[in-house]
Amino acid sequence: MGEPQGLPRSGDEGPRHPALLGVHGSPSIGEIVTGGTAPPLPWTAETWTAALRRPDPPRFVDGSGLAVNTVPPADATYFDLASELVHDQPAEALDPEIAGSLAAIGIVKGRPFQPDPRMREILTEAAAVGNATARTLACRPRPAEGAHYYGTSPQWVNGLLVSGHDFMTPPADITDSGVEPRPDDGARKLNLRSWWSYLGVGISPAFTAPLPGIGSQYLFAFADREDRTLDGGERYRLVLPPDIPAGRFWSVTVYDNQTRSMLDTPQRFPRAGSQDYPTPAAVADADGTTTVHFGPDRPEGVPEGNWIQTTPGRGWFAVLRFYTPCGRSSTRPGGRARSRQWTDLVRRCHEDTPARTMR
Predict the structure, then answer these.
(1) Which of 48, 78, 94, 139 is the one with CA 20 to 30 A from 231?
(2) Are 214 and 281 in contact (CB under 8 A)?
């Protein structure tokens, strides 16, 4: 028998044994030993020691009460940030199409990003136009996009239910007879991708699964029934019928339509829902409906958990969430049939002005 093909000596390039290197996609000894990948060649005692070293335990940072800005810049510094990200990551981490677009304006890994004054002026305008375009697509999706939940007249939208999590394939319909796939026209729904990415960033198939007991369902509202942008100086109310179909919990949260972050008010937590933390749970009315009020101040007699504070001069939008949806409603306020969820938003401009319904 020949000499065993063991681990290499220091400075040795290492054996070329298939059991060590892996063949045809099979795991290598290195992967088995380290639990990940083998160290790069040449193998030495030092590289193996480093590969076998247990990673440091994760460090958890308590961000409670701290201000964190997660909003990308809307001026030329947006491209400076993009350059930092490109240089911070391996070249192959970036999608080639995106890398090509960035390279066209001078953002290339390994090269300094130094736009001249003329280019800086162009990039400043580009960032402003891009930000305005994305906000328009997010807050005013066209009816032709199919994002409107109850048809084109009501204001509740969720583009994921027509685009799917990949923004190409609509989620399958789940019926009593089984799963019914919906057709894919082969075109990426770019406007809906912009709609979601501008608002939510992260995506999961669970966001789009129309299956009771699985995942979550979201509805967004950016305007009232008369198609007027929601105004922080006005008063509104949201009426949810009895038996809200959320197995775990439901909530409605208010966001600033400029920052897409939760609205910053003295109330601190701009939300209402079935949970009693971090604010009191919403209280149902005598008829079983649940009414949530929005406005600069809490109306008299309204429980604390049924009011979300808004700020005059600041626009906002609402997201209604159902976690573990469990059941379906055949009607919504106004009597219009619909097999999914329901909502009814009304607006009051003054205490003595009748509310106007938004279906």
Answers:
(1) 78
(2) no
Q: What is the pTM (predicted TM-score) of this model?
A: 0.74
Q: Quote the tokens at residue 289.
A: 């409906």
pLDDT at 280 over 80: yes
Question: What's the pLDDT tens digit per position in 341-353?
Answer: 334 344 433 333 3
For residues 294 and 310, give the distance between their C-alpha atoms in angstroms, rounded to a whole number: 7
Q: What is the pLDDT of residue 22?
A: 40
Beta pairing partners, 307: 293
SS (H, E, C) the chain: CCCCCCCCCCCCCCCCCHHHHCCCCCCCHHHHHHCCCCCCCCCCHHHHHHHHCCCCCCCCCCCCCCCCCCCCCCCCHHHHHHHHHHHHCCHHHCCHHHHHHHHHCCCCCCCCCCCCHHHHHHHHHHHHHHHHHHHHHHHCCCHHHCCEECECCCCCECCHHHHCCCCCCCCCEEECCEEECCCCCCCCCHHHHHHHHHHCCCCCHHHCCCCCCCCEEEEEECECCCCCECECCCEEEEEECCCCCEEEEEEEEEEECCCCCECCCCCCCCEEECCCCCCCCCCECCCCCEEEEEECCCCCCCCHHHEEECCCCCEEEEEEEEEEECCCCCECCCCCECCCCCCEEEEECCCCCCCEEEC
Residue 357 structure tokens:
């319904």
Question: pLDDT for 243-257, tens place per residue?
Answer: 898 889 999 999 998
Choose among 132, 123, 119: nearest CA to 75.
123
Residue 164 in tokens: 């799917």
Question: How far apart (Å, rounded) are the C-alpha atoms in residues 82 and 130?
Answer: 14
| Structure tokens that stand for 284 in this block | 């149902």
In angstroms, the CA 227 to CA 36 distance is: 54
Q: Can you tell me the distance from the alpha carbon of 135 to that of 156, in angstroms, rounded to the nearest whole number?
A: 17
Residue pair 219/343 in contact (Cβ under 8 Å)? The answer is yes
C-alpha 48/C-alpha 10 separation (Å) is 10
